[in-house]
C-alpha cells in the first residue's frame, strides 16, 4: 500500500483512500483538491499517491483539511 522510508516510521506516500481516511473526508474530496491543485499528488507505479509532506503542509495551513 504505502511506501515506507527507512527509519522514518511513517509512510512517504498515501493512496487517495488513505489520505481521505486520515483527513476524515470522502475520496471524491481528495480527488477534487488534487485536480484543483490545492493538494499535490504524484504518480507511483501508475497510481496517484499523495506525498506525506503534502498532507502535512495542507494540515499546517489555516483552515486545515479540505
TrEMBL record:
UniProt-listed Pfam families: HTH_17 (PF12728)
All residue ranges annotated as the Helix-turn-helix domain in the record: 14-61
InterPro entries recorded: DNA-bd_dom_put_sf, HTH_17
Superkingdom in the source lineage: Bacteria
Protein known as: Helix-turn-helix domain-containing protein
Organism of derivation: Kutzneria albida DSM 43870
Upper taxonomic lineage: Bacteria, Bacillati, Actinomycetota, Actinomycetes, Pseudonocardiales
Amino acid at each position: 500500500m504505502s511506501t515506507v522510508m527507512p527509519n522514518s516510521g511513517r509512510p512517504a506516500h498515501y493512496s487517495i483512500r488513505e489520505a481521505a481516511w486520515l483527513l476524515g473526508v470522502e475520496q471524491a474530496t481528495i480527488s477534487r483538491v488534487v485536480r484543483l491543485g490545492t493538494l499535490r499528488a504524484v504518480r507511483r507505479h501508475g497510481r496517484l499517491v499523495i506525498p506525506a509532506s503534502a498532507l502535512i503542509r495542507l494540515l499546517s495551513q489555516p483552515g486545515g483539511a479540505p
